[in-house]
Amino acid sequence: MHAHLRAARRPTGGPTPTPPAPHRTGGPVPAPPARRLTGVAALVLLPALLAACADDPAPAPAPSTSTDPAPAAADAARDELAALAAAAQDRSFTARYTLADGGGGSDRSIVVTSAVDGTWRVDVPGGALGGTADVSLATTADGLYQCGLPSAGRPEPASCVRLGDPSDAVPHLLDPRVQHPFTDWLTVLTDRRAPLAVSPARPPQGASGSCYAVDTTSASLNAPLDVGIYCYAPDGTPTAVRTTGGTLVLAGPAGPGPATVQLAGPVTDGEPLGVAAPEPSPESSAQSSAQTPSGTATP
Known about the structure:
Blueprint: H1 2-9, H2 33-55, H3 69-90, E1 93-100, E2 108-114, E3 120-128, E4 133-140, E5 143-149, E6 159-164, H4 184-190, E7 196-201, E8 210-216, E9 228-232, E10 238-243, E11 246-250, E12 255-256, H5 282-291
Antiparallel strand pairs: 1-2, 1-11, 1-12, 2-3, 3-4, 4-5, 5-6, 7-8, 8-9, 9-10, 10-11
Helix pairs in contact: 3-4
């Protein structure tokens, strides 16, 4: 049958014979119109489809994962603060600061001395006996000292008590915490391993310099320093510190520091002065009770 069909389609030069068809006779059988249209449509549409595929936009590339600017800014702030704190460690100066505790009390004048040989001294009015006694904390080559200064709560002449070696910390009960921003907290600020979060901050009122908000990232109750705002001049001079304990602001230009610090008085075997107000003695309590009216009799 296939041979017969091929013979029927082969041109012979004459009219095309009519292929036999069952139950019907007649002239030549034309090709089905639907198939012709389908073939023509395919030839017309195929280039259009190819062009459409070529015109389809390429898939958008996945967004690149760029570095988050927040950690980069935090790292930059940490580096800047560490550099300024390192400059403060190498700085020798004498300066006066105003301390406002934020509790409504009067401002206090703090004198800070940082010597060329690394010794230091910080005079703290109201730093002992519940704010009634003035003290001076200092380190020399011989040790760490607390010196009592003449004041309302301690009218005696200045004298000093040795608290420990130069590298020792001030005991908690004797610690007014004012000296830390100029001494051991500088070591924490320069240590990149310390659990700190640092970001740029605005200076406290009346302060100048570059300021940074410092927070601790450790859950420990013994934080390496007080969180707050720390400000420095370009040469490393501390210009302001604001913590929960108050706000220190540089009150004027810093002067040059001495070769070494001098204690405020002679060293004695006396007892150091605690930060808290002393408890009343039994005699004073009894005297106060005797002077207090017991009340008014009821008629």
